[in-house]
Amino acid sequence: MADCVKTLCPYCGVGCGLEVVPSPGGVGKVRGDRSHPSSLGQVCVKGATVAESLDCDRLLYPMMRESLDQPFRRVSWDDAYQRIVDHIQTLQRTVGSDAICMYGSGQFHTEDYYTAQKLIKGCLGTNNFDANSRLCMSSAVAGYTYSLGSDGPPCCYEDLEETDCAFLIGTNTAECHPIVFNRLRKHHKRNKHVKLIVVDPRRTPTAEAADLHLAIRPGTDIDLMHGIAHLLLQRGDLDVPFIDECTSGFSQYADVLRHYPPERVAATCGIPLDDLQQAADYWGQAKRVLSLWSMGLNQYAEGTAKVCSLINLHLMTGNIGKPGTGPFSLTGQPNAMGGREAGGLSHLLPGYRSVKNPDHRRQVEQHWQVPEGQISPTPGRSAWEMIRGLESGAVKMLWVAATNLAVSMPDLQRTHAALKRSPFTVYQDAYYPTETAAYAHVLLPAAQWGEKTGTMTNSERRVTLCSAVRLPVGEAKADWEIFAEVGRRLGFEQQFSATTSSEVYAEFVQLTGDRLCDMTGISHDRLLEQGPVQWPYSQQSTDWQKSDRRLYTDRHFPTPDGRARFAAVHARGLSEPSDPDYPLVLTNGRLYGHWHTQTRTGRIAKTAAMHPAPFLEIHPKDAAPFDLQEGDWVEVRSRRGLVRLPVTITKAIAPGTVFMPMHWGAIWADDAEVNALTHAALCPTSLQPELKACAVNLIPVRLVEEAIDQQRIPQPSPLLNC
Fold first, then answer.
1. Residues in contact with 153: Cβ distance below 8 Å, sequence separation at least 6, in sequence order
2. Considering only CA atoms, which of 392, 440, 400 is closest in space to residue 418?
3. Rounded to the nearest 5°, which phi and psi values hold at 100?
4. Which of 64, 258, 274, 703 is in the most buried spot, having the most CB atoms within 10 Å?
């Protein structure tokens, strides 16, 4: 047995390398891998404790039931497969494959993602595969694609140590991507000239380290960025040769900026004018500006416009394609990048291809050996469109894998009602119970971290082999194996002939040749022998150890004219702003010890103890009208639902805004699901829901209880507790 097995942390998109010391039970000590170039041996508490959940509440064997009001019964894999195949074939005969939807996850390996695409889009002929990247990263995808011509973060983690000015917006990096933040913070501390700007309504641990904290009102990000751009334009802090030679649309963008003078922007954002001017000074005076963002920019109905507005700042100052510069999205899921490379959204095909492009469809059809025209030219249902399809009856089969949509979707009352209407739901996961399992007809046990071998791509486009350390528990199987077996039983033996994940990966990378995400020179064997590698890495590439493969260093972009594009967009603000009936704006986010609705972290004693109970942060000015004291319980109501939480009164949040953590589901706390409050307004380009902000009102629980006692109002119905 090897002294240690090198693998990857299965939590956020930082992609920290881990070394696992095997033990007779399967997994012993877990430590950071000092040879991994992304994390350099660092590891956060989640990565260090990941093995502690391997045997907690595992789904060990397939289970089925005929209806949701029946208990599950254990069945064989043959029985489970047969029921799934029979249902698919019945739908194909009667209503067609568009009645079938699959919803996946950035917790998949790339091999899982790729096999699912071949099954759903290639063999069944429907593009109804979407993933929780739709809820977290699709606005980044759309922004990159519009502005630069393709998805793919252009930066490297080395840029964290080479920048003069880091602009962090919509990200609490210190808690959500701690190893990235550690690298940036060390560089910031060592170099006094380096400036750190943090944009966030809360004074988070990230904001506490900043030279300048801009506590803007939720929804005013575009106003802020246009205000900074207005000042840069006014002062002449532009890279004119780059704008002239490498971009298009600047004049239209400049015309938009006229409408965002500093005084107006400062008032709209709720920040001092001097702070806005200071932000423009830092950006304009720096030689190398790096921006980082995450869900706080993406999860809005104008998420794509926000991302494009940030990229605009880089384009007007030439801060892209050079060390220490560029727009850099931080992914929330460990393999959200690999999923996008494999085509894991309803409008994508493998290799950063589009289902709308006939040449792209033809290339993939030939590779998959399916008839020409088999892949639909119509984008499939996005995540929320699947929920609407269940409501209308158009979706008659929902297959959910490696994600917990009964907690993560917006407007949970509506989501739960739609899930109850599903005629047939297959749920594939490693853990049981979860909130989503309550809505399933078939449960399939999936192998998880440490139990299967495959690849993941982190936020800096670095591919790592995640090697198995032990055998799967019970009868659990790798996700790709489950998808492939269903494909074979549907009659597609030729398409699913691979017997190992390395064979699946070798097939997948052939579809990346001559694409921006070229990985044709990467294989499981090379990753095992030589360690992680950044793409692009083609068959002609020679320097495996090169760790700064930035994109667009030649200042040529994969757009029709080879130029990056300025986006001339105006700010629209929140889809649901505050009003007299709902006077506060609720925002939400991740806590350091939490991840993915606590399906794993909630089952680990150390991470569970870090955040033992949900809470609501509120500014003293907002607490006073409600006569709230520290620790008082409050009922938070939106137009869709309610939660009950104790309050934490703090000046570390902007007045008019309240905050609650997002990872408590009904299994872990009563009446504490943030998405009971949120709404489903979508970005028209990315189709990403506005999960980060909604209007709420507060009622002290003591007043609710007094009213109930006096029978003045009916007692509110509790939220579903699975």
1. 144, 326, 327, 328, 329, 337, 459, 460, 461, 551
2. 392
3. -105, 135
4. 64
Count of other CB atoms within 10 angstroms of residue 673: 28
Look-up of token digits 């595969």: 129
The residue type at 242: F
The 3-class secondary structure across 418-461, one letter per residue, is: HHHHCCCEEEEECECCCCHHHHCCEEEEECCCCCCCEEEECCCC
In three state form, how does the secondary structure of 276-295 look?
HHHHHHHHHHCCCEEEEECH
Gap between the Cα atoms of 364 and 706, Å rounded: 64
Buried b (16+ CB within 10 A) or exposed e, 569-596: bebebbbbebeeebebbbbbbbbbbbbb
- Interatomic CA distance for residues 440 and 625, integer angstroms: 44
Tell me the percentage of the chain whose pLDDT exceeds 90.
94
Return the SS3 of 530. helix
Give the percent of the chain with pLDDT over 70: 97
Integer Cα distance of 691 and 194 in angstroms? 33
551-582 pLDDT tens trace: 999 999 999 999 999 999 999 999 999 999 99
Half-sphere exposure in the Cβ direction for 600 (13 Å, CA) = 23
**Average pLDDT rounded to a whole number, residues 62-74:** 98
Mean pLDDT, range 101-113, rounded to an integer: 97
User: What Cα–Cα distance (Å) separates residue 148 from each residue in 65, 77, 134?
Assistant: 49, 46, 20
What are the CA-CA distances from residue 524 to residues 111, 274, 455, 544 (Å)?
A: 11, 53, 8, 14
* Token couple for 332: 């929330």
Helix (H, G, I), strand (E, B) or coil at 205: helix
Query: Is pTM, for the whole model, over 0.85?
Result: yes
Asked whether the beta carbons of 153 and 294 are under 8 A apart, the reply is: no
Report how far residue 629's alpha carbon sits from residue 713's, in angstroms, rounded to the nearest whole number.
24
Pull the structure tokens for residue 43: 């590891």
Contact 679, 695 (CB under 8 A): no
pLDDT of residue 145: 98
- Burial class of residue 189 in the structure, from the number of CB atoms within 10 Å of its CB (0-12 exposed, 13-18 middle, 19+ buried): exposed
**Could you please report the per-residue DSSP string of 253-319?**
HHHHHTT--HHHHHHHHTS-HHHHHHHHHHHHH-SSEEEEE-HHHHSSTTHHHHHHHHHHHHHHHT-
